[in-house]
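Here we describe the complex-level prediction in full. Unlike the single-chain runs in Section 2.1, the two entities below were treated as one system.
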Amino acid sequence: MKQMGKALFDKIWEEHVVFNLDESMSVLYIDKHLIHEVTSPQAFDGLKKRGIPLARPQRTMATADHNVPTKDQHLPIKEELSRLQVKTLTTNCENYGLELYGLGHPFQGIVHVIGPELGFTLPGMTIVCGDSHTSTHGAFGSIAFGIGTSEVEQVFATQCIMQSKPKKMKIEITGKLQKGVTSKDVVLYILSKLSSSGATGYFIEFMGSAIRDMSMEARMTICNMSIEMGARGGLIAPDEKTFEYIKGREFAPKGKAYEDAVTYWKTLYSDEDALFDKSHTFNASEMEPVITYGTNPGMGIQINERIPVEANSSEPSAKASFAKSLEYMGLHGGEQLIGKKINYVFIGSCTNSRIEDIRSVAAFVKGKTKAANVHAFIVPGSKQVEEQAIKEGLDVILKNAGFELREPGCSACLAMNEDKIPAGEYCVSTSNRNFEGRQGPGSRTLLASPLTAAAAAIAGCITDVRTLI
Amino acid sequence: MKKFETLTSTMVPLNIEDIDTDQIIPARFLKATTREGFGKNLFSDWRYDKEGKPKADFILNDANYKGEVLVAGKNFGCGSSREHAAWAIADYGFRVVISSFFADIFKNNALNNGVLPVQVSQQVLDQLFLEIKKNKDVRLTVNLPEQFIELQGASLKERFEINAHKKTYLINGFDDIDYLLSIKDKIVAYEEKSKYLKIVKS
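The structure predicted for the assembly as a whole is:
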């Protein structure tokens, strides 16, 4: 009997199984572990209580991102608990022999921005982090997923993790994107079709011509938000763009080692006859800019559509949840979002804070000025992104347009630092979650692409960016 | 880890779908560096008003509903991977969460903290909400070894599925880290033979 082809996910998974305990559970080897200040302290405590060392410090990378201020990073952190948490990370890294890219370090930044940027993230790897958006690294053809702190401790102690194997989903995106429509719109569109639980229990592989056409950074945006569909993660088979992106980066293999690695990475794709548990196909040509109106990322509409009148399920609990969501947002079923006044625009987060995002915003706002009512701020994903933006003069363009360029961190994506959106205010945000209170208690988040966010800042209200380009 | 075998308790109904971990424990409470004390901030923004006073219409503030079993709408625990959500639920005193659907990371986090996520069909979930509405004092038995839940008076008895490994560990209070540490030799042997680690020496 002919053996069936393998999916990319299976190829990488099987390569990393130390052994299978039983049908339901595997011990999986982890190539790279990323840590930050919020989800690591209790795991370090666990090591301390057991009196054991951190197993493989060289496979671990640490940064401070969630809590850090985005202004005056050279000064001590004002907020006491944030300062203590960042200090705890520093002490733990010293005690356990880890290099820390903390505030002031040229490599500091959002954990999912610096991993790829430094060549720490490579195809074929298993990568984990105590952060759900670890799925971002899947754009390189790696199995990357978020874990809890107990699992962080497992990796600290043994470089392994106990995992049950998820099912596999294939999402093919055909066609070509229209001008003004970005990979963020693609992923918000898919989310609006599959819902925020549509991929729970699955690992997604994204493929198709629209994915191939995308840059590495655009692909990262797609994989980043695969968790918002409930997926364990999302990955994309590596190609020439991937190899080119990696070449020469700080920790990437060099010379012959790089050539050997590329030879291996070229074997990382799903075979033609690979089986998936579920498949979906979408056509990029039909997609418009997408924006969310509700309190989970699956509640999105194309920019010119109206908010649905009712939940797409007749279950009483679904109806009640839908109504609760619209009430929180101060919106009504059947309402159009175009023209809706907004006072805040946030461009940043591990979803959209890379240099291409900042370039696209700068190119769009050049020669324009933001509306007087809008507070618009851009938070670069890393120190390197910030420096690159300044080198290219983007900071000047942004400043002239009335946008504030801050220092790197997670910032208003989850409002752990002082960057909070006031209660009741709308914020068009390029981040990944519009949950109640996500950007500060009472804040109302509308998720969108960097272009749509920039257009809202210029117009002072929600606008179809395609009318301005 | 705290062992779990069976328990019988009244239930607390929270009939809202897609409850994300930002609602279970908002990000501003994640600045602690220990695992303790998160229960007081469980569902903080739904539970307290701006002045920090309990909101009368939220279920955790209703003295009629108490118990170790939280019954919640589908897709419970979606969003952020913060284990603080599981710590808050455990610290508050819940040992079981019942829903028709759980987000993956939350499910793992709960199991790693002695909290049992019980997944039932939407129909069974709706019936549970209905029974609690009829009688807030109705008790539910959750039997992990035999994998079933049963309503007092036996008006409902339903089997649930659970990962076999996690079940054994929860019943015995075993810890995954102890286990992983016990197979160190296997991990070293893996590292020595791994093709991939040889190719990418990073």
